Structures
1.
Amino acid sequence: MRLSAPPKRRSDDGIVPLINIVFLLLIFFLIAGTIAPKPEIDVAYPETEKSPGANAPADAVYVSADRRISYRGLPVDLGGLAAMVATVNPASQEAPLAVVVDQALPAKELSPVLATLAAAGVVRIRLITRRGGGS
């Protein structure tokens, strides 16, 4: 009795599903991840013991230790900050505005920035920190 030879399997049969999976992963990470531009000024994040660990969004207000201010990647002064925030972040918006303050900036130096944001119609502010070691 003569049996027929088993059909030859093509060597590239397993590559198509692999390409599909890699493509789907690429699409997932493009949708799930956000690419935020590097802020215009360098800020040393303050550390807290119980920080949620979120990164600052791209439209955060950055205040450096030498009182330079950056909003949406552009350096601004207090007057320019009020004008930009008033046009971009209307008062009816319930989402908090993210503010990143350098850890070396005294609280009394932050007060004018917060007053300017309040005058521009910002209702809620979220201070962004990094999780520290805790003591």
2.
Amino acid sequence: MVKALLYIFGFLIAGELIRYVFNIPIAGNIIGMLLIFIALRLKLIKLKDVKPASDKLIKYLVLFFIPYGVGLMVYYNLIQPFWLPIAVAVVVSSVITLYVTAIILEKFGR
């Protein structure tokens, strides 16, 4: 479990460093996820090495959305004039995500 967490946090730190050094306008955690995905695809690390920690983190994934909910409440006055475009963007992106996921599952199966 410790080894798995070290891998995950190592890639997170690497993503943050890349973002900081190259001043990229993408969140460091996204870059870190991309790096760990590439490392897994290229077999640089094995899935069994990160699976114990990733399974635990996914189990409690809902808790990671609490800070975003609090942020929405704190900045309600700032967001309130733009609620309609935000709502439309959320609904449209959710529908597109479900549609693309369905196509991929249908094409490649489980």
3.
Amino acid sequence: MRARVREAIRSVPDFPKEGILFRDITPVLADAELFRAASALHHSHVADLAEQVDVIVGMESRGFLFGPILAQQLGAAFVPARKPGKLPAATVEERYALEYGENALQMHADAFAEGARVLVVDDLLATGGTAAATGRLIERLGGTVLAYLFLIELDFLNGREVLGGARVEAVLHF
């Protein structure tokens, strides 16, 4: 199934800007069997953390697809890390650089209790800027990042190097 999930990922050249080869997971999501397989592959990479994880933090927006499923499987809560202006209560914010610009993420200031053990989930690890910003937000809120989990890692961009030596799991490598 891993090979079938990989084959279904569409490569879109020059998106969102020229020179970027975008890895589009929507064909995986559009196929119920592949979506289930991708979710199972996610779980298999972090099943050993089931008794340790308190919170899954999913990064906007594709972390919202796999994060809640994984949270239910691991018996953890789910917290979204959102783009600015999307959360209704008091937030904390962290700015970061992308391979094609700059952005920011916010989390509710009361997203989880101090000391929470957190698994960060997203679809893709590129340069690591978004994941590192999420990790900093979690630490500012008093949490500890146990691991980062991605469906895809773009190995040539070395994104895991900016994640401070944390455990990094990726289902697929490109």
